[in-house]
Amino acid sequence: MKEFIVDACAKGKRLDVYLTEKFPDKTRSNVHKIISSDKVTVDGQIVKPSHKLNGGEKICVEEINAVESECLPEDLPLNILYEDGDIIVVNKARGMTVHPAETVSSGTLVNALLFYCKDLSGINGVKRPGIVHRLDKDTSGVMVVSKNDFAHVNLAEQIKNKTATRKYLAIVHGVIADNAGIINGAIGRDKVDRQKMAVTSDGKPAVTEFRVLERFKNFTYVECKLQTGRTHQIRVHMTEIGHPLVGDEKYSARKNPFNIKGQALHSHTLSLTHPTTGERMNFTAPLPNDMEEILRQLRKLQ
C-alpha cells in the first residue's frame, strides 16, 4: 500500500495523468488499468481514471504492480560487445523492442537477456530487469545492462550526472548549413498526439549537440551527442530544426527513398566508468548495414 497527499499544483489534473507522473516507470495505460481494477482510492472513494483532482486529497494505491506479469526467457539472437560480472554491453538490433510493454509481451531484448543470463538487476521490476537506459525499437546500437543492483544504481547515477556519454549517428533530410550546433529545447508530450513527443514550453530540459560528418545533395550525415536523455530526443530535436531523420514515420512526412525500416539512427558509442573497478571504458557498435547502404548510395551520387 502506498499513500500520499496530492500536491496543490495538481489541481485540475486527471487522476491517471497524476499517477503516471508519480510512478514514471509505469505507462499511462498501465496506471489506467490499476485504477480501473479498484486498486486506487481518493479520500477513501473508488473513482474513475478521469477523476479530476483538487489538490490536498489523500490517495491510496493498493497494488501499483498489480498488472505486471513475469517476463519469460526466449532464445533470441544477441550481439554481445562486452560482459563481466557486473555489466553486459549489447549492440541492439533495429526493430527489437527493449522491454515488454502493453502491446509487446515477447521478442524483446529483456526476453533474450533472461534466456542468456539469469542474473540481472531487479530495480526496475519483472518487466525491465537490468535495463538502465533504453533505445527506441527502431534505433540500433550500443546499450549497457546491469547484472546487479549495485551496478544499476551506479550506472543510473552516471547517466543522470552526465559522466556517462552517448554519441549517435544519424542520416537526416536536408543539408545542414552549420558544421556543428547545440539544440536546446524542452521536450514533453505533444499536445495533439499523445503518442508523440514535442518541444514544449512545459517540457523537461533537453540538450542535443550535433556535428556534421558529411553533406550530400538532399541529406546530411551527422553525429549527435546527448546531454540529456529524453524520450525520442534526437528525433524531436532534429525535426524541430527542420531536419527530420530519414525513415522516421512518426516525426517526418518526407518520403523515404531508402530501404530502411525505421529511423536512420544508431547508438554508436557509449563511454562509462565501470561500477566496480572504476576503469573508464568505451564501447562502439559498428554502423548497421542498412545505414551503410544509404551512405554508399548517397556517396555514389556525389
Q: Which helices and strands appear, and what pairs or packs with what?
A:
Layout: E1 2-5, H1 15-22, H2 28-36, E2 40-42, E3 45-46, E4 58-61, E5 80-83, E6 87-92, H3 109-116, E7 140-146, H4 149-160, E8 165-173, E9 180-184, E10 187-189, E11 197-199, E12 207-215, E13 219-226, H5 233-240, E14 265-273, E15 280-284, H6 289-300
Helix pairs in contact: 1-2
Helix content: 10-25%
Span between N and C termini? Answer: 63 Å
Mean pLDDT: 91
CATH superfamily of the largest domain: Pseudouridine synthase
Beta-strand level of the residues, as a percent range?
A: 25-35%
What structural class do you assign from the helix and strand content?
A: alpha+beta
CATH architecture annotation of the largest domain: 2-Layer Sandwich
Sheet having the most strands = 9 strands, mixed
The count of strands amounts to 15
Q: How is the CATH topology of the largest domain named? A: Pseudouridine synthase
Number of helices: 6
Morphology call: globular
Order of helices and strands: EHHEEEEEHEHEEEEEEHEEH
Provide an overview of this structure:
By secondary structure, this protein is α+β, with helices and mostly antiparallel strands. The protein folds into 3 domains: about 1-60, Structural Genomics Hypothetical 15.5 Kd Protein In mrcA-pckA Intergenic Region, Chain A; about 70-160, Pseudouridine synthase; about 165-265 and about 290-300, Pseudouridine synthase. It is built from 6 helices and 15 strands. The strands form 3 sheets. Strands 5, 6, 7, 8, 9, 12, 13, 14 and 15 form a 9-stranded mixed beta sheet that branches. It has a 4-stranded antiparallel beta sheet with strand order 1-4-2-3. The chain starts with a strand and ends with a helix.
